[in-house]
Sequence to fold (242 residues):
Amino acid sequence: MNKQITPYQNSAGKKVQVAEMFDNIAGNYDFLNHFLSMGIDILWRKKAIRLFKPYAPKMILDVATGTGDFAIESLSLNPDKVIGVDISRDMVAVGCEKIKRKNLGEKIELKYGDSEELEFESNTFDALTVAFGVRNFENLEQGLSEMLRVVKPGGHVAIIEFSQPQKFPIKQIYNFYFNKILPGIGRMVSKDARAYTYLPESVGAFPHGKEFLDVLNKVGYNEAKAIPLALGIASIYFASKK
Ligand SMILES: C[S@@+](CC[C@H](N)C(=O)[O-])C[C@H]1O[C@@H](n2cnc3c(N)ncnc32)[C@H](O)[C@@H]1O
Fold:
């Protein structure tokens, strides 16, 4: 399970390689993300944020925040404070610029932070979000258990991650797009040829559906459920802390 797929073939650990890769593509990330997904990633974040509505969270942590899109989306919950953390300093820098441009600095703070070693006290946040981040963790269970530690009892966690659709013809279309089209466009636009071949490889090796729910349960998440998105291309995992 979770075979270690790394961006590059060098001796650095996965975390160092992942940070380097996202530093390399930070300048093009937002454009490529929305272009390659045809904007559907925006709808997925909105749908995940709606799951928190009944709980009206006031303190929110967005892990692997990148350029801050999930953190920004969570403002629709009217929280007091949103903190976003990421190990790529260049992604955070692009995100900080965006927050400044949108005048959201009073509510949102983005900074360097590692999911596997969070700087926050236990039981700090009412809600925690991660979009397309957990697949990149060097130590998945360590990251997930650190996330759970900083959530308050009764708080909730939403994780969006790619899945592997199983049904004809979505499976075939998805595999063709992910393996043939996307790496070509990614190579042309971003400065990192490897980033968009790492994407399908890392998705292929990552647990999804029941297998990922098993990991969440093992780590101690409560009431974990999977909500498939776009015929199984991605999933929202929603869980609480006892
Ligand atoms: C595909 S981007 C997703 C960014 C953002 N969440 C979004 O929805 O656009 C994945 C991010 O995970 C970050 N990341 C990977 N491992 C991490 C870790 N251990 N702690 C914090 N961030 C991490 C990467 O640096 C990268 O910015």
About this structure: The chain has one domain: 14-240.
